[in-house]
Amino acid sequence: MMLCHLAVAIIATVHIVLTKRDTSAAIGWISTTFMMPVAGICLYMMFGINRVRRLARRLACRHVSPVITTLNYASGVEEGSFASLAKMVGKLTGRPLVGGNRIDILIDGDSAYPAMLRAIADARVSILLCSYIFRNDNIGGKFLDALIAAHDRGIVVRVLVDGIGSGYFFCPSARRLHTAGIPCCRFLHSILPWRMPFINLRNHRKILIVDGVAGFIGGINIGDENFVSRRPENPVSDVHFCLKGPVVRQVTEVFARDWSFTCGEELSGSDYFPLLSECGGQAMRVVTSGPDTDLEKIEFIILQAFTQAKSSIRVMTPYFLPGSRILTELSLAALRGVIVDIVIPQASNHVIMDWACRADIHPVLDAGCRVWLANPPFNHAKLISVDRSWSFIGSSNLDMRSLRLNFEMNVECYDVDFASEVDDLIAQHRDSRLTHHDLDERSLPVRLRDSAVRLISPYL
């Protein structure tokens, strides 16, 4: 039996060495398989092997989305201080930077939900909706009613929800949509044992596209907790965005790929991809990341943007556990004189993440970055502004799950006015400053707890 366990552990080790790019992850899995020959190998087979990447590559070869072939850059991007960033992102993503767009900021569900529901009510051709969480509560019921009403009047409706975020065993919203005859798929959801390895991979994107013309993206899920003015039990403040212009086509392409990946149906034609005219002056581009062919792309772009910062970096994220690369780049920026502000919640909705964050944040404080705590309610916004000229918004948190495991979608914008709006919005939440003294005041048991939790931060 011992020889059998050793042989299996060696086989697993060979696979780990050949496939794992991250050294610490590889060492961790190798140690696990040797220390726990049966349980460790089962865990590696369930959670350590990235089967999604291989499937995604096959789908990428098979699925060809419509693309924009004639697009204008916004004036100044090619010659401006972020020209090299724009070039790098274009090569990394394979998507063009498109001009002629307009973006509006929607604060909390109080602003986002009415705008989204109006767009659904006014739909003439198609509605595409993707949400990590889609509750069947009061506001979720309104969305369900609106989608069913649109379906009944002949609008093509497609809904994609995450297999974990919207309920693993029971998903009332999906059930109600199915009952109404609306195609609704659950991303990577299955209770079959051989499908269990996928439960750690989640579609965290929030997308609504109406008629292929108007797009809503950001961090807001569909649930009563986001309607802050109604004082829910556990309120969640957040930011969403309404997009119009050629960039909406890129958002639609992201949904179409996810839908094809999950359901096998190809979305094409003018119902989903109409001709789009310019309606603003902002240059934008969609950026996706996930444990497939888009691995680490959002992280790479953030790193490059921080590298190019000359005066200021402002970051707002609900969870701050980005890993050593981003921590190092923020620290280097602060050391060369860039003003770095990092805004995190005073208390998030995941207390373990807060513990790990407190143990992991020392390097940026040592380098001179300013870390701020936002007062309740818990703020779930994900915003980045660099030099008040470039901004990065969307669904991705600054933690290892979002940067490595989740399927995320962000949008980069090269526009001074919009970046300044994002910058000011982040600044408004600098309520109290976290200092070395605050961290040093923690008792020894608390510091031990936080440091121990930090060790498992890649899996939180």
UniProtKB/TrEMBL annotation:
<feature type="domain" description="PLD phosphodiesterase">
    <location>
        <begin position="375"/>
        <end position="402"/>
    </location>
</feature>
<keyword id="KW-1003">Cell membrane</keyword>
<dbReference type="Pfam" id="PF13396">
    <property type="entry name" value="PLDc_N"/>
</dbReference>
<keyword id="KW-0443">Lipid metabolism</keyword>
<comment type="function">
    <text>Could be a virulence factor.</text>
</comment>
<keyword id="KW-0808">Transferase</keyword>
<feature type="transmembrane region" description="Helical">
    <location>
        <begin position="29"/>
        <end position="49"/>
    </location>
</feature>
<feature type="domain" description="PLD phosphodiesterase">
    <location>
        <begin position="199"/>
        <end position="226"/>
    </location>
</feature>
<dbReference type="Pfam" id="PF13091">
    <property type="entry name" value="PLDc_2"/>
</dbReference>
<keyword id="KW-0964">Secreted</keyword>
<keyword id="KW-0472">Membrane</keyword>
<keyword id="KW-0677">Repeat</keyword>
<dbReference type="InterPro" id="IPR025202">
    <property type="entry name" value="PLD-like_dom"/>
</dbReference>
<protein>
    <recommendedName>
        <fullName>Cardiolipin synthase</fullName>
        <ecNumber>2.7.8.-</ecNumber>
    </recommendedName>
</protein>
<dbReference type="InterPro" id="IPR027379">
    <property type="entry name" value="CLS_N"/>
</dbReference>
<keyword id="KW-0444">Lipid biosynthesis</keyword>
<dbReference type="InterPro" id="IPR022924">
    <property type="entry name" value="Cardiolipin_synthase"/>
</dbReference>
<dbReference type="InterPro" id="IPR001736">
    <property type="entry name" value="PLipase_D/transphosphatidylase"/>
</dbReference>
<keyword id="KW-0812">Transmembrane</keyword>
<keyword id="KW-1208">Phospholipid metabolism</keyword>
<keyword id="KW-0594">Phospholipid biosynthesis</keyword>
<keyword id="KW-1133">Transmembrane helix</keyword>
